[in-house]
Amino acid sequence: MPDERRKDKRYKCLLPAQVLQAEGKEKLVQRTTVHDFSRGGCKLIINIVTLDPGSDIELELYVPEKGLKTMLRAEIAWKKMAGDKLEIGLKIKDMKREAKEEILKWIAPVGLETKKK
């Protein structure tokens, strides 16, 4: 996905997560890692290869160093293969504001977490 389509700056990170539900997949639980995160979205690398843009996905996201665990619902905005894994870009639809702010404080350098102009 081209950077100019993003409203918010993304920050590289490696946050453990678990896919709890994905459209068309019943009782799905898969460990994954969030590789970047912003106010509006994030990028995952997963083993599931049948997820398509427009599908909904539900994750549990962890920040072990902060003792934080939170849920988020998102829409898959894009996907691309990276070797035998699938990279997916997510547009966050529902996430607790306090949890999002705490994650951004943890991964973003102070003063740099601002909207793109």
Structural class: mainly beta
Structural Rg: 14 Å
**Helical element count?**
1
What's the total count of β strands? 6
CATH class: Mainly Beta
The whole-number mean of residue pLDDT values reads 84
DSSP helix fraction: under 10%
- Largest sheet composition: 6 strands, antiparallel, barrel
Spatial separation of the terminal alpha carbons: 18 Å
Our estimate of the beta-strand percent is over 45%
Report low-confidence residues grouped into runs of 5 or more. 111-117
* Widest beta sheet: strand line-up: 1-2-3-6-5-4
Report the CATH architecture.
Answer: Beta Barrel
CATH topology description: Thrombin, subunit H
CATH superfamily: predicted glycosyltransferase like domains
Query: What sequence of helices (H) and strands (E) makes up the elements?
Result: EEEEEEH
Choose one word for the global shape: globular
Tell me the domain tally. Answer: 1
